[in-house]
Amino acid sequence: MRILISNGRLLDPVNKLDGKQDLFIADGKIVGVKKGPDGFESDIQLDAKDKIVMPGLVDLCARLREPGYAHKATFASECHAANSSGITSICCPPDTKPVVDTTAVVELIHHRTQKTNRTNVYPLAALTLGLQGEQLAEMDTLKRAGCIGVSNALAPIENTEVLRRAFEYAHSCNLTVFFFAEDNSLKNNGVAHEGHVSTRLGLPAIPETAETVALSRALLLVEQTKVKAHFCRLSSARGVSLIKAAQEQGLPVTADVAICNLHLTDMDVADYNSDCHLLPPLRSERDRQGLIEGIKNGIITAVCSDHQPHDADAKAAPFSLTEPGASTIEHLLPLMLHLVNRNELKLEQAISALTSFPAKILGINKGTLITGNDADICIVDPDASNIIEKRKLLSAGKNTPFKGWELPGQVTHTIYNGEIVFKQE
After folding, report:
1. Residue 231 confidence (pLDDT)
2. Which terminus of the chain is more exposed, N or C, with fewer CB under 10 A?
3. Of the residues 22, 95, 275, 306, which is catalytic?
4. pLDDT at residue number 425
5. Measured in whole angstroms, how far is the alpha carbon of residue 388 from the centre of its chain?
């Protein structure tokens, strides 16, 4: 299929592309920018006047709930929801059921991906068998099966010797470790940020040091082992400072933040809103501002949805007994554009954090509009707006903390491998 996208504002910050130009697609590839190949005749022409044409978004963390949790969501439902936000590549943590610690599970994920045929899905392999934090997984075998990194997801590795050996093994396999920094003892079954809100509500608290102590330990091991490490979903300003110091020291570390932590704070938990029960928790306004500054200063280079769709029962109990996580994959791009409209981020920073930078972290050739690349494209109308309503969500999970928000930007088309997989009616 040949597609011509005309009259749009092509925006690809990493290649310094920003201007009104045409984009030519054929056989699943970008075959021309501004000028098409000789004799090009389109089967489909999309008029992108007054719209932004950008690379398909790369989401560094989204749970598609399969295998093992199909009662919460499926590949089909969540990939469709992802397409509605212009997402064409998704990285999945290994905490499925069964855990991604065997080649059979990797093959199952690849099979589901091909069957759905809506997004690129990149699984992370388990760092330890069963995510138990005791015995190392067969990282080299899992890499050859198609995993692009290793992680222990949200499960702690409390034995520092095991963590060191895991880092050494990952380094020997040339695999990036995706590390969620949380000290399980300091977390101590907490559910909200330690501060005046958790005290007033009587909620078990998670101190900032649950993140910073775990970060400090991991960074010292990164220094020792030289492993490439990506720190997932920072939540504190102090955590950003630790990553900055490590980067200035020359350590091979990167970091991301979840979209909720850029918009919400612990004040949003004040009425026991279980949709704001997240992990890491929503912290103070000072922390939110610190995370924004981290993006502006290039310390945090990626923003992810941290999409976790839940069934209704998972969020229906008292706050402390509900399951953490929010359904956010459909809001990722609009929420970033909201930060741009509020002058908290520049448009180029926002787009880079959703495209080329996360692709670089994953080591994949995505997130750009270079001729010859796969035609994964997002077309968005920046002047349109949407009010978030739970009943209209495409995700099977309706657990969004952004109900009733009016957000800028409406994705009109998403193209994956040269095929239109989403079109706004």
Report:
1. 98
2. C
3. 306
4. 80
5. 20
Residue 253 is predicted with a pLDDT of 98
Q: How far apart are CA 36 and CA 6, in angstroms?
A: 11
What is the predicted pLDDT for the residue at 344?
A: 98
Give the integer Cα–Cα distance in Å for 417 and 415.
7
Domains defined for the chain, CATH in brackets = 55-362 (3.20.20.140)
Question: How many whole angstroms separate alpha carbon 299 and alpha carbon 325?
Answer: 25
Residues of the chain with pLDDT under 70: none
Report the 3 state secondary structure along the chain. CEEEEEEEEEEEHHHCEEEEEEEEEECCEEEEECCCCCCCCCCEEEECCCCEEEECEEECCECCCCCCCCCCCCHHHHHHHHHCCCEEEEEECCCCCCCCCCHHHHHHHHHHHHHHCCCEEEECEECEHHHCCCCECCHHHHHHHCCCEEECCCCCCCCHHHHHHHHHHHHHCCCEEEECCCCHHHHCCCCEECCHHHHHHCCCEECCHHHHHHHHHHHHHHHHHCCCEEECCCCCHHHHHHHHHHHHCCCCEEEEEEHHHHCCCHHHHCCCCHHHCCCCCCCCHHHHHHHHHHHHCCCCCEEECCECCCCHHHHCCCHHHCCCCECCCCCHHHHHHHHHHCCCCCHHHHHHCCCHHHHHHHCCCCCCCCCCCECCEEEEEEEEEEECCHHHCCCCCCCCCCCCCEEEEEEEEEEECCEEEEECC
CA separation for the pair 377, 163 (Å, rounded): 39
Residue holding tokens 């597609």?
3
The alpha carbon of residue 330 and the mean position of all alpha carbons in its chain are separated, in whole angstroms, by 12
Whole-number Å distance between alpha carbons of 274 and 143:
37
Question: Alpha-carbon distance 63 to 79, whole Å?
Answer: 10
Give CA–CA dist 354/253, Å, rounded. Answer: 18
For β-strands 419-423 and 125-126, DSSP reports them as unpaired
The set of residues, in sequence order, having a beta carbon less than 8 Å from that of 273 and lying 6+ positions away, is: 401
Question: Considering only CA atoms, which of 420, 328, 306, 314 is closest in space to residue 72?
Answer: 314
Q: Is 306 a catalytic residue?
A: yes
- Whether the predicted model's global pTM rises above the 0.85 cut: yes
